[in-house]
Amino acid sequence: MSMEDHLSEIRLSAYKFDAPEKLPEKEMQKILSDYSDLKREKILYAERYSKLVGRKNLLFLGISGSVSYEPAEPDDVDIFIISRNSSLWLLLTRCFVLRRLYGFRDICLSLILDERSAYEMYSKGLSSLRKQDALKVIPLVGSGYYSDLLSHTLGDGISGKIEAASSSERAGALVRFLDMIAFIFVSPVIYIKSLRTSSIDRKDGKGTGGFATILSRGFFYFDSEKYHAISRNMEQDRND
Questions:
Q1: Are strands 58-64 and 77-83 parallel, antiparallel or unpaired?
Q2: CATH numbers and ranges of domains, the chain
Q3: 156 and 165 in contact (C-beta within 8 Å)?
């Protein structure tokens, strides 16, 4: 599939999920009819969660990982989020609290970037595997923004507004202060819990086989050992 076709799919997702009003259930089922029952179920599950999260400080929310391909029954739903600058930890705290309060146990907040970090990550270029995964992401909120971000990654030079926003938009002083407080108090809790989960994965030989938790004021993500191995193998296959 060409880049233009990929971007057309993403823009179509804006109609599917990012419309200002919720589509009737029959129409939603018709739109999702090309997916397997399990994939459709997991997408709708993530959509319900995204509606709880709301739009405050949020630029983009989508589904990544196995569900964006073809999931198995036990797979978590990996969520990819891009926040406005200087508000990532306020948004992430809200996401974790809502996940726990409403029992969305199968939601995994695996990749969270502010818009500056997203621009930097995508402007540096992606590995073959990351580019493939990026094209598979299913947007639930902010599909137009993500389409522009992908366009920048794939080199057609139409993402000027992303670069401008990343360099110029800045949250107010109160939001920046509250975000710093959230980072100071929430990030250690998440980090310790992630270490425990990774240790269990290694002992049981399940899941990713262990992962590192990478975080700062502008990003939060799980760095899987298994993912790196797959990426290396893919690059090697390309070079052979």
A1: antiparallel
A2: 3-171 (3.30.460.10)
A3: no
Angle, helices 88-101 vs 173-204, to 10°: value is 50
pLDDT in tens, 67-126: 999 999 989 999 999 999 999 999 999 999 999 999 999 999 999 999 999 998 888 777
Tokens describing residue 112:
């969270």
Give the pair of three-digit tokens for residue 125.
Answer: 């270029």
Residue 166 neighbours by CB under 8 Å, 6+ apart: 85, 115, 116, 118, 119, 120
The model carries a pTM of: 0.82
Task: Note the helical H segments in the chain.
Answer: 3-17, 25-31, 37-53, 88-101, 115-123, 128-136, 143-153, 160-168, 173-204, 225-239
pLDDT in tens, 27-57: 666 667 778 999 999 999 999 999 999 999 9
